[in-house]
Amino acid sequence: MRSPEAVLAQLGLPLPAPLQLPAGTSLPFALVRVVGTRALISGHGPTLPDGRLAGPFGKVGADVSEAEAVAAARLTTLAMLGSLQRQLGSLARIRAWTKVLGLVASSPDFHRQPVVLNGCSDLLLQIFGPEVGAHARSAIGVAVLPFNLPVEIEAEVELHP
Amino acid sequence: MRSPEAVLAQLGLPLPAPLQLPAGTSLPFALVRVVGTRALISGHGPTLPDGRLAGPFGKVGADVSEAEAVAAARLTTLAMLGSLQRQLGSLARIRAWTKVLGLVASSPDFHRQPVVLNGCSDLLLQIFGPEVGAHARSAIGVAVLPFNLPVEIEAEVELHP
Amino acid sequence: MRSPEAVLAQLGLPLPAPLQLPAGTSLPFALVRVVGTRALISGHGPTLPDGRLAGPFGKVGADVSEAEAVAAARLTTLAMLGSLQRQLGSLARIRAWTKVLGLVASSPDFHRQPVVLNGCSDLLLQIFGPEVGAHARSAIGVAVLPFNLPVEIEAEVELHP
């Protein structure tokens, strides 16, 4: 089986640079925390290739369309993979995705959060295959997200010993 | 000690059929993901015995009453148990409940989410007893949930080796 | 290295008494659930030294200021440490913080949840140091929290075997 990095290269999907925070913000925590064979991935948002947060901003169903939110979930997934690669050295160290928690800043009448999060799940399955890439998932519509992002995703993976 | 299935039978609580998604929806993830001795349970909603999502729909405190929300939390718990049984073969493989995260789609002035989630916690303790059934829990009021559900619950259990 | 309890004493930060629930409320779950070397910490809110829930109540950005919310996140962290100490006997049993999930009841235009949660992260790092205290984190703005609290935090730690 090809490495996740090889699949990403074939798909033409480079991983973004490290997160560049908006001025005056400090995030005193680990983007990826490894304890034993578990790697816990902090909540990420969509980023541009240079690591700046990617728009559009606002609530899905009002300021942001469903299609834009799916694209944001996809960019968020790439941002998580970038953080994982920098922390782990290689994405091939991932033995199994375990859990994805997806948060969608939603207008009160938008309840297609699962469609938005499929932008993450589909990409994980494409890159890691159906066994390593399988994951439990919850999708939630929340009032508002940090930096007015439309999508935030946290996740957990299990590493090879 | 009697098996969880025996307690469910005594309580007259059959587990529902597998989730039947609304037309046009695809959920490309695992309802239960087993990694080692951990089983991670995706966000579930209340279902009817045939697996269709159960109403009432909408926000608790506005469209859905507190009592209806407690009943929805109970149905959601049965849906999770159905998914666990199909994945594990037997609920007796569960050594310990570890974590319950309960999400309640809430009107802005409804803050009795813990009462709603007790519909889940009380049932788990009744079925699994105070040692296996004990769990950490968080209850949150969110803006809106997938499919306009009033309640969504995700959880994690530890399995016998 | 000094014990977490010694650091708390030096900082003049006593841990609060056990949570005193509002009348008529029952929470049938474990505030801390230990399974193997993992301790899962239920969602906590800010408490006064005597264990009663601490105000101000309401939504950050409307009823509660950002500075008050940072203070609430700090009190919530002390409440979690109190629960951990009662469950574990000693905070020195904590080998690593792994995960913090911070929920901020937010007005629709408040998106500085990370600043609020830094009240938790900064205190954990001060008490446990940069290695034990490091953690993955997600911050979310939600519609409404139990008991109308402005902040709720759940977390997970890994224990020494």
Count of the separate structural domains of chain A: 1
- Number of helical stretches of at least 4 residues of chain A: 3
Q: Spans of chain A with pLDDT under 50 lasting ≥5 residues?
A: none
What portion of the residues of chain A fall into strands of 2 or more residues? 15-25%
- Work out the number of β strands of chain A: 5
Concise structural overview:
3 copies of one chain form a homotrimer. With 161 residues, chain A is an alpha+beta fold.
Characterise this structure:
The structure is a homotrimer of 161-residue chains. In chain A, helix 2 (66-88) runs parallel beside helix 3. By secondary structure, chain A is α+β, with helices and mostly antiparallel strands. In chain A, 57% of the residues are buried. The first copy, chain A, has 3 helices and 5 strands, in the order H-E-E-H-E-H-E-E. Chain A has a single domain (4-159), classed as 2-Layer Sandwich (60s Ribosomal Protein L30, Chain: A), CATH 3.30.1330.40. In chain A, 32% of the residues lie in helices and 24% in strands. Chains in contact: A-B, A-C, B-C. The interface between A and B is medium-sized, with 31 and 30 residues.
Task: Give the key terms.
homotrimer, 161 residues, alpha+beta, 60s Ribosomal Protein L30, Chain: A, 3 helices, 24% strand
Show the helix and strand layout:
The structure is a homotrimer of 161-residue chains.
Chain A: H1 4-11, E1 32-35, E2 38-44, H2 66-88, E3 94-105, H3 113-132, E4 136-142, E5 151-159
Parallel strand pairs in A: 3-4
Antiparallel strand pairs in A: 1-2, 2-5, 3-5
